[in-house]
């Protein structure tokens, strides 16, 4: 069994790097704080006798050997980057649980047939650089390395430059060095369903797909007073028209469909100038790829109408398209069995957030464990999971991993 | 007659201070460039033998004595600050025309019965600090000095600190030192009507009133994926709902009513976080104060509905309420007569932009001259008025001023 005190204190330790005054975490990918947490994680992996490697995209791996030289490794992990002013569990819980699994195997001198490898993926969050799940996406071959290197943040800083700056552009190619047996990831649910149903732990059966993109309207800056309404080409009014539709489109599609505009930037942003250029994002998610494609089609149609009404030029940029995935039965069963054997009350659940597991699904059998998220809240400093719930999920992950690794 | 070459070269000279690469002007009030243009203007006034004073709000005056010691001064001027990436005529044209009027009187040794005073008002634009027409408003007693000193820009910089920093917190009280005979101001129209009607110059009969304010919605940051639509408290969706209505409310009120959102700021502004706090502005203008008050009532009603739909807290802040004014007959006639005598084809027109003349109206008889704005465009680097049109308006202003000053 995992050592609860060490597990909790390790969780608290990681939360200090990039921790905010309000108890959250502001540890954006490739920031100075990301470098610091990576240095810390490297130390922990070395101290746990793992053989460590960093790939050219900054993904960090630590391997514990198995007894069978021909057995494929079981990969377990998540991410240590955070949202802007996000929570201390999102991502980190899965990495620390993987680390604790290794420490526990070491403490108890338990051997497994398959190697167990733990991983910290680069830029899972997708807030500073899009897409989300970027490191796992490149590693799994869903994205092109050079294209992702060239991505820029809102300040124009280039991904590759930042990766080099923090010293985590490793030597290994960003790709699987061999075949993998399975991938397991623990994450907080980030939604309300486990709590609403009074469950201890979630057995994840799949992940919604999503479409992300940005629309820019180009109007004409002009005086907000003497310019008659019918002379105007107001980029912000068009953006507002589309944003209200992004709230409403989901209700016309599916029960689980969600749509969000998280980002907006208006220029010149002066109280008495008609906005000339406005960029904003869309995001839609659903368990069905057809629904996702339809939502994207509709938002672009709304943009076309809004541009026509205001007499604007416009363009859009796709920023992400993650497929909806359903996990392999073997992994779902391993997680379900682990939860059952540990006596946890569980339910099967489809993830509404994206996870690195999305991309791992194309590489090997994949499964996930969810920990309860109080009030379903995340991407917020007040994100909260009790230590009991963290421990239940970490124990489930550990047992499922050892099961799959033949321990 | 005004010396055309000197007038044009002085216009070009001022446009170099804070000039942009694209031929516009970025000379925000109380910025370093504002200091520089003020220093330059001070030199020009001194060179023109004016007796100069700066008041405690930074308004700059230069007086040319009259022949009758009991005659009240005629005030002529406008403003030298600009919008962010605005045009080179807005404001500056009126100040340079006033300066050229003085130079021309000096050149020709023309005496006037009344003193003529020229003025550069502080912060007419209202972009960096609200309200607009701030310096003239304090001077005319429409605003309280200390309240306006305490205003902050979006970075939290305090007005009074900036005024001291650039060295233009003068010694004179910010109020009329005596009674004034009249106030005249030349400005570009900033709207399309003169050009549409093929006119040389505009005789302004009054100025629309306006209401400005800012609304802030407070929602909850949460994950844009696993958070079901009915759990959300999305501050940006509510803002978008209100912004689309700000485009539409004018069409339900009056022929000249306009409504604009020029500014928006969303937090945390991340593609996969539901926006938690959004601030945006409203601005409505109309020749009728009743219409303006009704527009303000309606936008606050829309905000209340939007907040209720999204389950948000919200608040608003009034940033400006300028009354609609109709100019005194004597000044309108003086401008009309000047245009007629100079042989310019003119039309009477109601201003859709705010001007310092709004506040002067409460102090003394007030009038304005408009120069043609090509395409009605302003608050944009591509704002344009031909030198012919600039000269026609400046000549009209000069003749009207000399007429009112008894020259
Ligand atoms: N799990 C998680 O928050 N991932 C970030 C990418 C996304 O789903 O928005
Ligand atoms: N004339 C002018 O642009 N004034 C600025 C204040 C306003 O009318 O918006």
UniProtKB/TrEMBL annotation, chains A, B:
Residues 206-307 form the Peptidase M20 dimerisation domain. Keywords: Hydrolase. Transmembrane segments: none annotated. InterPro entries: Amidase_Cbmase, Bact_exopeptidase_dim_dom, Peptidase_M20, Peptidase_M20_dimer. The keyword Nucleotide-binding does not apply. SUPFAM superfamilies: Bacterial exopeptidase dimerisation domain (SSF55031), Zn-dependent exopeptidases (SSF53187). GO terms for molecular function: hydrolase activity, acting on carbon-nitrogen (but not peptide) bonds, in linear amidines. Its EC number is 3.5.-.-. It holds the Pfam family Peptidase_M20. This is Hydantoinase/carbamoylase family amidase. It comes from Natronorubrum aibiense.
